[in-house]
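Run log, item B.
One chain of 404 residues. Sequence copied directly from the ordering sheet:
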Amino acid sequence: MALACAVAAWWPARRLGPLNPLYFAAGWLAGELALQWVALHALVTVAFASAGALSDTTGVLGLCLNFAACGFLIACHLRSIRGAEAVATLAAAARWDPPPLVSPTHGFALPFRLKASGVRRIRDIEYGDVLPGDKGGRNLLDVVLPEASGELRPALLQIHGGAWIIGDKQHQGGPLMAHLASRGWVCFAMNYRLAPRAKFPDAIVDVKRAIAWIRAHADEYGVDPDFLCVSGGSAGGHLSALAALSPNDPAFQPGFENRDTRIAAAVPFYGVYDFLDRAGVRGWQSMAPFLARLVFQCQPTENPELWDSMSPINHVSAKAPPFLVIHGTHDSLAFVEEGREFVRALLEKSRAPVHMLEMTGGQHAFELFHSVRCAQAVRAATAFLQTVHAQYSARPSSLTGPSS
């Protein structure tokens, strides 16, 4: 089993149909926490050796398999360290301030500890009324902000993933929000209504409600209402991209059509950007049956306008805000080629900067907790967002604002 997980962490396999989620689960933690797994293997080996397990052929075979697993895991860790090269190359090409180097043992001791010095979290604030389809608490958000007070600070809205059917604001984006808040940003992590109790477009309506709420309450948290960015992973990557590309769209703002929902920049992680897979990336592994049954609750032929409207790639235009698209090359749930197609469409039409960071060896959900690869992506996202904010701050006062 240990060797199988290590191989899954090293070797990308995405054409497994219904087994894709199992393959993801097998390799995800092993790949991101490779050093911890090696340490665990070492302890187990010492314990079994002390108990005399190496006195027979079976024990020796187990030791050999254990060494093989450790070899794959060490290779995975070395590959994650080399991700710094991709970040440095992108930063140089984009003319960002060089992100700080990441320690090769980053997150080893406390990978799941998301608290940061000088940062606090305010939990469970209502950003709107409870609407039909809310199974409870889906109209809440948390605020992650510096302990010190401030004014006109940049803000980020973080949208969790979970295939639009599960997930919570506490379970994603922690490293990025803590890192930004320690640098003076104010971050908001939101819940939204989930399928199948809700259906599209309810989720993006909730995102728009949260954006409008943040702007209305900006003074309370020392936020600049004209500089709000958005990020999220997986389903949250989809929703963050869609929100950034559909500013003030009345179809997604029922009852609050006149509220300002513009976004200054977007950093979607491993999102899905075309539900109809018009580039043929997924082929026979189309998500359409799952989406039609649970999320849209209709077939594409029954409501093609809705399916088109929920695909971010259909909203790409010259007015798109700056984008940094981040994706792992080994993602077995949302394929990296989907991100590439989305970036290609942005580059063809957008007048704003468009960047893509491919994290070699990165599996889906690689940035949920502290790891070397997560830290590299967080620092790249921070460099991008800081650059966009610096450019915004340098504009004449008459031109500031996300739509300028």
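Observations after the first pass:
- The longest helix spans residues 57-81.
- The longest strand covers residues 223-233.
Flagged for discussion on Thursday.
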